[in-house]
Design a protein that fits this description.
The protein is α/β, with parallel strands linked by helices and 488 residues long. Helices cover 33% and strands 22% of the residues. The protein is globular, with a radius of gyration of 22 Å. It starts with 5 loop residues before the first strand and ends with a strand. Bound molecules: flavin-adenine dinucleotide.
């Protein structure tokens, strides 16, 4: 690696920041160009009329198996900004019956660690549970090659082919698929869904421990990223959208912004798919570059809605931090967001905050807030009668929020070098199996960094893959590690 070489990273979301930090940690000179005035990317806190402070657009859900993301938080000294369950607890609410079933990990090794509590759970019948056991076994028996061949099959078809009951699908498989793959299981790629459930249920008994941010995302993460990038010597330029790539004889040798030109030996692109497709096209762009842009355009995004309700007091019973609402298409989950925040981070909220994230929300974008409020109130009144009054209600609609893992999406996800021209791709949509998430974006950024280091002859990265720890960063959030906070 020449001491003169400079990498320009485009996009200051989690992927771009991960990539820039990883490269800078290996002595590479990095310029990070971000279009907006802050770091952190598309998941961000927003200003809402009637609330005296920014709040997160919707609930952010993550799990202990987000290993590279926790490594990133650790290297940014941002461990304090998250809490994690000490062992998995998932709660399922049957609204009309006013009944909550708790699924907890027990003493059996995975994939049977949740079995005992599933057997006692009321939200599923015995037939549903036996069918689910079979599906988990079937997933366990699928090897990587077979799994990848299921990309064109919908997850719903796979579930039906594997004897799943309607109730097991609607109350267990589909809600998790929708939350994580951003698409209903009738449209989701079976290959992506099986990847997800294997990661969550097979191997590590703590993989599904749920985590939460103890502050708003922008406060919790942006400033830590900024500080760590500065300390690592990365040249961060905010409010600097890249307008085009500069090509010389078929090779990208720099980028243009409104303020001027930035020369680069390599350009790493970590922008959302639509911005990436724009950068990769144009009259001087190569055929390969155009082909990647075309694939990205087909990949597509689905929308998310954040429902933010403020009550005079708590709604969920003590010890239940969130519930998945069975058979509720709009009010899919309820999170006690006030309970997640640290004491000092609740200022300016108009009441006790319940956040209800709506995944694959495109069909609800047209709904007005009053209609959404009526649905929310119906669920709360049915499930928790006489609960503290609703005193504030806000809806945040986020169009094209996250990449949806639809059938065929796997083959559309490009590899880092697919665009040619000396460009390295590193957004959360590259070919790394993980669905669009904080974990996918961290891994994508690291894969892009490793690609550059490998090409530059750093032998340590010749065989590195994102299932391995990033060697320069502290450990992930292992259960035994006392540096991480427990979500009680
Ligand atoms: C509403 C919502 C809810 C979500 N919920 C969850 C969740 O619960 N759990 C989870 O794990 N994940 C969730 N995600 C997904 C997760 O936030 C994303 O996968 C992740 O943030 C993507 O990171 P990224 O760095 O790849 O892209 P981005 O975050 O999109 O960052 C790309 C950056 O590039 C910048 N940019 C764009 N064009 C240019 C340009 N021309 N020049 C310079 N900069 C440019 C953008 O301003 C942006 O900052 C959610 C996302 C959204 C939007």
């Amino acid at each position: 690696m020449s001491s003169q070489s400079r990498v320009v990273v485009i996009g200051g979301g989690i992927a771009g920041c991960s990539s820039a930090l990883a490269l800078a940690g290996r002595g590479v000179s990095v310029t990070l160009l971000e279009a907006s005035p802050r770091l952190g990317g598309r998941y961000c806190s927003v200003d809402i009329g009637g609330i005296e402070r920014p709040i997160d657009g919707t609930q952010n859900v993550f799990f202990r198996n987000f290993e590279r993301f926790f490594q990133l938080l650790a290297t940014c000294e941002a461990r304090e900004s998250v809490k994690l369950q000490n062992s998995t607890l998932l709660a399922f609410l049957e609204v009309e019956q006013r009944r909550i079933s708790k699924i907890r990990s027990g003493t059996l090794p995975p994939p049977n660690h949740l079995s005992a509590s599933f057997l006692n759970a009321n939200f599923l019948g015995l037939g549903d549970k036996f069918s689910m056991q079979k599906a988990v076994q079937a997933m366990q028996n699928i090897d990587e090659e077979q799994r990848r061949e299921l990309d064109e099959l919908s997850f719903l078809e796979w579930l039906e082919n594997n004897g799943q009951t309607k109730r097991a699908i609607s109350r267990f498989w589909n809600p998790i698929s929708k939350l994580a793959l951003n698409v209903d299981c009738s449209q989701a790629s079976a290959a992506s869904a099986i990847f997800l459930f294997k990661k969550a249920l097979i191997g590590n008994a703590n993989a599904l421990d749920v985590g939460c941010f103890t502050n708003d995302f922008t406060n919790a993460v942006s400033s830590s990223l900024r500080r760590t990038l500065a300390a690592s010597g990365v040249d961060v330029l905010l409010s600097s959208p890249v307008t085009s790539l500069f090509r010389e004889e078929g090779v990208v040798t720099g980028v243009n912004t409104k303020e001027g030109f930035h020369a680069a030996d390599r350009v790493v692109i970590c922008t959302p798919i639509s911005d990436t497709a724009r950068l990769l096209t144009g009259s001087s762009a190569s055929m390969k570059s155009h082909e990647v842009a075309e694939s990205l355009a087909k990949l597509g995004n689905t929308s998310q809605i954040g429902i933010h309700a403020f009550h005079e007091g708590p709604i969920l019973p003590q010890g239940i931090p969130f519930v998945s609402c069975c058979d509720e298409p709009l009010i899919q989950m309820l999170f006690d967001r006030s309970g997640e925040l640290d004491d000092g981070n609740r200022g300016g909220l108009p009441g006790h905050w319940i956040c209800s994230p709506v995944s694959h929300a495109d069909k609800y974008l047209e709904w007005d807030d009053e209609l959404i409020r009526t649905e929310y109130q119906r669920v709360i009144d049915s499930a928790f009668p006489n609960s503290p009054a609703l005193i504030g209600f806000h809806v945040v609609k986020i169009n094209r929020a996250a990449t949806s893992m639809k059938t065929g999406s796997q083959r559309l996800r490009p590899n880092p070098l697919d665009a040619g021209e000396g460009v390295i791709l590193g957004g959360d949509w590259i070919n790394i199996d993980w669905p669009s998430s904080l974990e996918a974006s961290t891994r994508a950024g690291l894969v892009a960094a490793a690609t550059y280091l490998r090409e530059s002859g750093v032998t340590e990265f010749a065989e590195w893959n994102h299932e391995e720890k990033w060697p320069d960063w502290p450990n992930s959030a292992n259960k035994e590690d006392e540096d991480w906070r427990i979500w009680k």
